[in-house]
């Protein structure tokens, strides 16, 4: 017999509100954490454990083992463990738990994966040789590719751009990142001109021209859908790369990698990407090191080519 919903999920609902309104996590992250915690709650119910905060290090470890036996990847298990860590910290904070059982657990090891990116020649072909559709559609699609590649912004940040976020006189974009953290990204003269032309054409779609109105709109003046942007980026990248991943985030990786390859300071790239710490940015240095390693192996007499 299931436990009453009010008893089983009351603290979970409070925690989700905490993530949403106090921590300002993205809706996507909040939804993922809720799913993870509800999944653990279902697991506990099989042992007649009523509340999430009654989980122990043993039950959490048993759940993690079951997930991995079912084929869930180490990265996904780590995310679920992260959701539990946050929940138990909150439970202790509000006096609903005396201890944090996750403190005794080590996350499963995950293999290091280098960020996938598009080579410079591929991006040059995309931006210099591709024939874009005529009219507003082509202008929108090209602007999407250029904004993602030239600024390194996330897809959610791109879709969140408002008309007033583009300061074309100063050549900057105001971007609202994770946890509502604002940053200013400089853009080059060519992209400024493209944005100016786009804003003129945007008026013809009938879209609202208020400063808070979405910057990117379709031919009917409606804000772009997340999935439609993902599909068009994948379609354009498929013409210049054979790699499996062809998402908007690949263009973010491409931006960071190309910046570092051309001598950009790591801290500057960190600020442009909106990373909270330098460790998140350092992963891109592995790409440049691997490229140097290949050059050394090919060119040096003792390089092992």
Description:
By secondary structure, the protein is mainly α. It folds into 2 domains: 5-104, DNA polymerase, domain 1; 120-297, Orthogonal Bundle (hpI Integrase, Chain A), CATH 1.10.443. Helix content is 57%, strand content 4%. The chain has 12 helices and 3 strands. It has helices spanning 5-22, 27-45, 57-69, 74-93, 120-129, 135-151, 155-159, 189-203, 226-237, 248-261, 266-273, 278-299, and strands at residues 166-167, 172-176, 182-186. Strands 1-2-3 form a 3-stranded antiparallel beta sheet, with no helix packed on it. The radius of gyration is 23 Å and the shape is globular. The chain starts with a helix and ends in a 6-residue tail after the last helix.
List the helices and strands and how they pair.
Elements: H1 5-22, H2 27-45, H3 57-69, H4 74-93, H5 120-129, H6 135-151, H7 155-159, E1 166-167, E2 172-176, E3 182-186, H8 189-203, H9 226-237, H10 248-261, H11 266-273, H12 278-299
Antiparallel strand pairs: 1-2, 2-3
Main sheet makeup: 3 strands, antiparallel
Distance between the termini: 66 Å
In the sheet with the most strands, the strands line up as 1-2-3
Give the SSE order as H and E letters.
Answer: HHHHHHHEEEHHHHH
Structural class: mainly alpha
CATH homology group of the largest domain = Intergrase catalytic core
């Amino acid at each position: 017999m299931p436990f009453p919903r009010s008893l089983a999920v009351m603290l979970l609902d409070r925690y989700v509100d905490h993530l949403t309104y106090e921590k300002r996590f993205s809706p996507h992250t909040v939804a993922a954490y809720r799913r993870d915690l509800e999944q653990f709650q279902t697991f506990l119910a099989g042992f007649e454990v009523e509340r999430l905060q009654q989980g122990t290090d043993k039950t959490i470890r048993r759940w993690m083992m079951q997930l991995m036996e079912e084929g869930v990847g180490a990265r996904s298990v780590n995310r679920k463990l992260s959701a539990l860590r946050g929940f138990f910290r909150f439970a202790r904070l509000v006096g609903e738990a005396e201890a944090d059982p996750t403190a005794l657990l080590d996350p499963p090891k995950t293999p290091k994966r280098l960020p996938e990116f598009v080579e410079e020649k591929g991006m040059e072909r995309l931006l210099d040789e591709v024939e874009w559709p005529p009219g507003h559609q082509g202008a929108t699609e090209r602007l999407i590719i250029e904004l993602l590649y030239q600024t390194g912004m996330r897809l959610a940040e791109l879709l969140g751009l408002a008309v007033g976020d583009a300061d074309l006189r100063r050549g900057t974009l105001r971007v609202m990142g994770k946890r509502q953290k604002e940053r200013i990204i400089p853009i080059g003269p060519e992209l400024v001109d493209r944005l100016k032309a786009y804003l003129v054409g945007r008026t013809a779609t009938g879209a609202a021209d208020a400063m808070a109105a979405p910057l990117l709109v379709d031919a009917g003046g409606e804000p772009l859908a997340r999935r439609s942007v993902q599909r068009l980026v994948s379609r354009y990248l498929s013409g210049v790369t054979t790699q499996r991943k062809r998402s908007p985030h690949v263009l973010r990786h491409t931006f960071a990698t190309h910046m570092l390859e051309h001598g950009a300071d790591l801290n500057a790239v960190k600020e442009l990407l909106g990373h909270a710490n330098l460790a998140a940015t350092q992963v891109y240095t592995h790409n440049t090191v691997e490229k140097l390693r290949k050059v050394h192996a090919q060119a040096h007499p003792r390089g092992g080519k």
